[in-house]
Design brief:
Blueprint (H helix, E strand, L loop, with lengths): L6 H12 L8 H12 L10 E2 L2 H10 L1 H18 L5 E5 L5 E6 L1 H8 L7 E2 L2 H4 L3 H8 L3 E4 L12 E4 L5
Antiparallel strand pairs: 1-4, 2-3, 5-6
Amino acid sequence: MDEFFDPMKNAWSDFIEHGIIGPDVRKEVTDSWRLCRSMGVNPMGGAGLVLDDGALRKRLKDNDTLISIAHPIMEQIYKQVKGSGFVIVLVDKDGYLIDRMGDGEVMAESRKINFVEGALWTEGAVGTNAIGLALRLDLPIQLIGAEHYCVTHHIGTCSAAPIHD
C-alpha cells in the first residue's frame, strides 16, 4: 500500500474530476464543496482577494474595538504555539483578515496565497476553508488537508470559531 495514500485527497479528486462525493466526506464539507462549485470557485486557485490600502484602513478602523480586545489574547495564544508553524488570525464579520501573527517562515508562505490583512476568506472567495465555514454555519470548525476546496490549501489544517458581541 502506498504510504502516502490519503482517502480525503482521493475523495476531493473524485469530486473535482467527476462531481462524485463519497460517504466518508463530512456533510459540512460536502455542502461547502457543492456551494463552491456552484459559485464558480476555481479549485486550482485559492488566493484571496485583498482590499486596497484605503479600504483596509477603513475596515481596520471600523473594527478597532474588536482588534484592541482580541490582539492581546492572540499574543497569549501565540506564546503557546510559537515555533510550531501556526498562524493566528482575526477575521471580521464579513470574512476579511484584520489581524494576524505567526512564525516568520509561515507568515511569508501564507502571503503567497494572500493570507494577509485585508484578504477576503469566505467560501466564495477562496473555497471551502474554516474561516468561511465558521462564518456561514455560525459554528466552530476545523478542516484538514484536502477537506479544503482549493488545492493550494491542502497543506494546512485550519480551525475557526465565530465571535459574538
